[in-house]
Amino acid sequence: MKRLSLIVILTGLFVLGVYQVRAMPPQDNSSTQDNGSTAKQDLKDAGHDTKNAAKKTGSAVKKGSKKAANAGAKGVKKGAQKTEEGAVKVEEKTH
């Protein structure tokens, strides 16, 4: 459940970021020529940023999944121990 909410939050932030980029007003071409930056390079940079964001998101999801799986396994183990303790108590009372 936590993993799903993490994915929803990260997706929402990504969509918000894309919306913010598209909502920016156009800039003067003279300033981009001074810096030597072109539209093609800007697109490449945006692609690299998106790639890095996807890697970070994947890493966070992996970490969250691992944490949830470990917590689930711990709960199962604890439940099995308690069941065994209860079975021993019942057995002692019946003898």
Oligomer kind: single chain
Rg (CA only)? 26 Å
What average pLDDT do the residues reach?
Answer: 79
Bin the strand percentage.
under 5%
Write down the overall geometry. rod-shaped
Largest sheet: none
Number of strands: 0
User: Could you give the order of the helices and strands?
Assistant: HHH
Measured between the Cα atoms of the first and last residue, the distance is 45 Å
Low-confidence stretches: none
The assigned structural class equals: mainly alpha
The number of helical runs is 3
Helicity level? over 70%
TL;DR?
Helix content is 89%, strand content 0%. The protein has 95 residues and is an all-alpha fold.
List keywords for this structure.
mainly alpha; rod-shaped
Describe the structure.
This protein is mostly helical and 95 residues long. The protein has a domain of 39 residues. Helix content is 89%, strand content 0%. The chain is built from three helices and no strands. Helix 1 runs antiparallel to helix 3. The longest helix has 56 residues. The chain is rod-shaped, with a radius of gyration of 26 Å.
How are the SSEs ordered, and which strands pair?
Elements (H helix, E strand, L loop, with lengths): L1 H22 L5 H7 L3 H56 L1
Helix pairs in contact: 1-3
